[in-house]
Amino acid sequence: MLLSRICLLLSLIFIRSVDGAVSKSTPVKFHNQKSFGKRKVHGSNTIPTPVKTAIVITNRLKVLLDESADHKVPPASLAKLATLYILFQCLKNGSITLRTKFKVSKNASLQIPSKLGLLPGSTISVLDCICALTVKSANDVAVVVAEGIAGSTEKFCRLMNQMAVRVGMKNTNFKNPSGLFEPGQMTTARDLAMLGLALCRDFPEYLHYLSMKAFKFGQNTYPTHCKILHWCSAVDAAKTGYVRQSGFNLFVTTENHLTKERVIVVVMGWNAPKQRDMYAARLLSTYTRPRSGVGRLPMMRQIRASFYAQVGNQSLLGTPAITSKGQRPIPSAPVKSIDIVQQDDEVELTAEELDKWYKDDVVVETEAPVEIGAPQM
Question: Could you give the CA distance from residue 207 to residue 152 in angstroms, rounded to a whole number?
Answer without folding.
Answer: 26
